[in-house]
Design brief:
It contains 2 helices and 31 strands. With about 450 residues, it is mostly beta strands.
Length: about 450
Amino acid sequence: MKLQKLIKNRRCKTLMLIGLSCHCSAVTYQVDTTLDQTDVLLGDGLCKTINDQCSLRAAIQESNQTVNTDVILVPGGDYLLGIPGIDEDQAATGDLDLLQPVVIIGDSAELTTIYGQQLDRVFEVFPQISGDDTQLSDLTVTGGQYSEFNQAAGSALLIRGHDVNLNRVNLIGNQTLGSGAAAVHISDSCLRGTQVRITNNTGEQSSGTVFIEGNGSCLELDEFEISHNETDSNAAIFFHTSAVATLKNGLIAHNKSRTSTIVLNSDNQVTFDNVTISSNQGNSAILNDGFSQLFFIHSTITKNTGSNGGQPVVGGIQDVHGGTGMVFLTNSIVAGNGPGFLADDISRANSLNGGNLIGDAVGYAAEPSDHLNVVLNLGNLQNLGGFTQAHEPDIQWVDLANDSFCNPYDQRGYIRPRDGNSDGLYQCDAGSIELTPDLIFIDGFE
């Protein structure tokens, strides 16, 4: 206890030396107005506007004065940011600048909405003194707009030099008019999230809905959706430098750009685990253009086509490097894409432990348990349970995955393996969804 107190006192003295206030203990601020107003006296530990209320902006301004991880509670309501002035960095105008670690908690993503009103991006996270992660939970971020060219955009969320956690957060309907990311820009930081939806964001000249750069950066999402975004290039995710990513139990669908949906431009290492990548429009669903290692485990890549009626180079996965490239597939489905100029489904990839269902492929190194030239007849994306939509498995192609590398759960969180075709055998299915008996007609009767 004495050591903790000594550390806290030293942190407070450090803050005073650099001109920041310190209350030396975390504070919980209860927002009680939806009005966008500033704090009347910074550093006094009181969230108080000119109307003697606690606004979201005022709470953030007070939290910015200390290294403590304060908590800001934001009840249900529409919080419209209405003070013009972009690129101001003290949360006084424009976006909400987070200078110190903070936890911001809404009532739910359906009830608490922070709306940028197209004045600026919504949140900007700066490098911070404390090692605690900043956290946003149970809210929706919408209406952000950033228009400057050749600058980091992230019209919903710009993260630089500090890790951020998102829990049950929607990033919806944000827009970038310049050259940056439509929704999220991650630089020298990690973004981790659970039950995150990044949807309906647009970028007229932007590179990606999510843009990630920095050799120490990472992206970790579990139960996520990136869908219905439209950008000039790299519709869903653009990996610019050597970042690491793990994407689990999610959906990347209905995104559109003139280039690819997911682009890797450096030596990244990215794992897709129980992920459906479907119905995107562009030059390919996945383009590996930087000697990155990609691992697809129990994932489904299907129904990806060219944009505006054009023909993609490859409908599914394209690795532009020699041989079979650096893409590795286990118990996955890559079929029903295109048609593409080089291949419908795969140009250069490798089977890793087999159990894959592969359509039209060029330069694919198969294993004995793979099935090639598969013709799948999957229906539309639909609600099958779980956080996101998915494709119901084709009963003709079940029980063909490698049971030795069977995930214990599918994209919905349902237990694997199941006896989906009622043949008395519990065998693992390829792809992100395990066929379950209640999804089929067994004997002609429901």
